[in-house]
Target: Small ribosomal subunit protein uS4
Amino acid sequence: MTKRTAAKYKLDRRMGENVFGRPKSPVNKREYGPGQHGQRRKNKLSDFGTQLRAKQKLKGYYGDLTEKQFKRIYAEAARVKGDTGENLVGFLERRLDAVVYRAKFVPTIWAARQFVNHAHVLVNGKSVNIPSYRVKEGDVIEVRQKSKQLGLIQEAIALTERDVPDYLEVDHSKLTATFVRQPGLADVPYPVIMQPNLVVEFYAKNG
Model:
């Protein structure tokens, strides 16, 4: 289901953290970056470096988001009322591929992108194949009838390393999920510490 099978742990190694909480992550055994010089990268980060790292980690967590896409979401988060960092996380979690991943219909965020692209998902009874589609409160997301027998769905449901968050109401017997509300940072079950406030600082200083 994913083009990034070979590279899916690269972010973990670059960050030195198990960003997705996967039991097979290489950083469980070695906590240094990829490449021949990975073990030597232990210099103290500047403020810019710390902010850039926070941005790369948050952006990377959501799969194949481009910088242009991520920056557009940030710009929208900055325009609306409220805390920009909280808004940013909320908007990212409202992406259809993120909801499919959170509902445990697929095992990885990259598989979620492919799953939506291949028209396996309905929103309020209508087919939606755009991963960036932003769901609203009360929207019902479900796996299309023809796709309910796919093996990766049962594989994902059986995963023990992550739970369904309480801003989704999920029925795995029917393969439906209702988006209850936009979450804040504290609601999102990230396996590692995310710092959207540093992402806000990064864009404030670096446009």
User: Anything to note?
Assistant: The chain has one domain: 8-28+45-184+193-206.
